[in-house]
Write a structure and sequence with these properties.
By secondary structure, the protein is α/β, with parallel strands linked by helices. It has one domain: Rossmann fold (3-Layer(aba) Sandwich), CATH 3.40.50. It has 7 helices and 8 strands. The protein has helices at about 30-45, 60-80, 95-100, 155-165, 185-195, 205-215, 235-255; strands spanning about 20, 85, 105-110, 125-130, 140-150, 170-180, 215-225, 270-275.
Length: about 280
C-alpha cells in the first residue's frame, strides 16, 4: 500500500480549505467485507436519530457502493493508475471502499460531515472540506474523479464539469453514478405522492450530451438500478431483512435490467467518460 499522498506522481500538495487526515495509513487496508461491516455499524448507529444515513444502513444500500468501488478500481488498475478524487464524498463510504482496492483516495465535500473522525478514521485518507468556488486541487492532479449522486445537485453542472476536467490528468476518467433518469418510475412515483424526487433529471441522450459538452468522451452510459435501495435502511426491521435479501435483490435487479425496455425506467444513469 502506498503511503498517504504518495500515489503516481509524488506527494499531494497542500491546499486551501480544511484538509484533514486520519492517522497514518496501515500497511494494507482491511478487506471489503470488513469495511462493509464498519459502514453498516456506523450508519445504523447514526440512523437511530436521523434518516440521513438510510442509504448505507442496509446491506442492499451498501452493495451499490461496493460495486461502484470495484468498477472504478478495475478500470484504473488495468491502466496502471490510482489517484482518485471522491467528489462529494458524504460520509466517506465510497472513499473507504476505494481505499480497500489500494487506490490513493482523496475525499472531498463542501461541508464537513465528520468523515475524518467517522468512517475514514485511521485510514490516512485525506478529507478535504471547502465551500469556496472552484476545487482546491492542482490541474492534472488526479487519474479519476468519482461523482456519485452529486452532479444533479450542483448549481452549475457545466462549470462543475469544467473544473473536474481541469484537475484530471490527460486521459483521466470521470465516473458518474446515480444521475437521475427523467423517466424513472421512482421519480414519477415521488412526484405523484409528494415524496422525495429530483428537481433536475436527464434522459439518456441529455446525460451524454451534458458530459460530452464538458470536454469528455463518454464510453458508456447504462441504466443504473431498477429496484430502490435507500428505503431498506429506514427502519431496523427492514435493515435486518435486507441483510438476508441482499444477494437476491442484486440478482433480481440485474435480471430485470436485461429485459427489453425496462432499462428506460431505471432509477438513474451510470456514465464512464474520459477527458479529451
Amino acid at each position: 500500500m502506498r503511503a498517504p499522498g504518495g500515489g503516481l506522481g509524488g506527494p499531494l500538495p497542500s491546499h486551501p480549505g480544511r484538509d484533514r487526515e486520519a492517522s497514518a495509513r496501515p500497511p494494507s487496508a482491511p478487506s471489503t467485507a470488513i469495511l462493509v461491516d464498519r459502514i453498516l455499524a456506523f450508519a445504523r448507529d447514526r440512523v437511530a436519530g436521523t434518516g440521513e444515513c438510510a442509504n448505507i444502513a442496509s446491506a442492499i444500500g451498501v452493495a451499490q457502493y461496493v460495486a461502484i468501488a470495484a468498477e472504478v478500481a478495475g478500470t484504473l488498475r488495468s491502466a496502471g493508475r490510482g489517484r482518485v478524487l471522491d467528489w462529494g464524498a458524504g460520509w466517506g463510504q465510497t472513499s473507504l471502499l476505494l481505499w480497500s482496492h489500494a487506490l490513493d483516495v482523496v475525499a472531498y465535500d463542501v461541508e464537513d460531515k465528520g468523515a475524518a473522525a467517522g468512517l475514514l478514521a485511521g485510514t490516512g485518507i485525506r478529507y478535504v472540506v471547502s465551500a469556496a468556488p472552484g476545487l482546491p486541487f492542482e490541474a492534472g492532479e488526479f487519474d479519476a474523479v468519482l461523482n456519485c449522486g452529486v452532479l444533479e445537485h450542483v448549481d452549475d453542472p457545466p462549470a462543475a464539469l469544467a473544473d473536474l476536467r481541469r484537475i484530471l490528468a490527460p486521459g483521466g476518467w470521470l465516473f458518474t453514478y446515480h444521475l437521475p433518469n427523467r423517466h424513472a418510475w421512482t421519480e414519477w412515483l415521488g412526484r405523484r405522492l409528494g415524496r422525495f424526487h429530483h428537481d433536475r433529471t436527464y434522459t439518456r441522450d441529455e446525460a451524454v450530451r451534458l458530459v460530452e459538452a464538458g470536454g469528455f468522451a463518454v464510453g458508456a452510459c447504462r441504466p443504473f438500478h431498477l429496484l430502490p435501495r435507500n428505503v431498506w435502511g429506514r427502519a431496523p426491521m427492514l435493515a435486518r431483512l435486507a441483510d438476508a435479501l441482499a444477494p437476491l435483490h442484486e440478482a433480481l435487479d440485474r435480471g430485470l435490467l436485461c429485459l427489453p425496455g425496462l432499462g428506460r425506467f431505471a432509477t438513474a444513469w451510470a456514465l464512464v467518460a474520459r477527458k479529451v
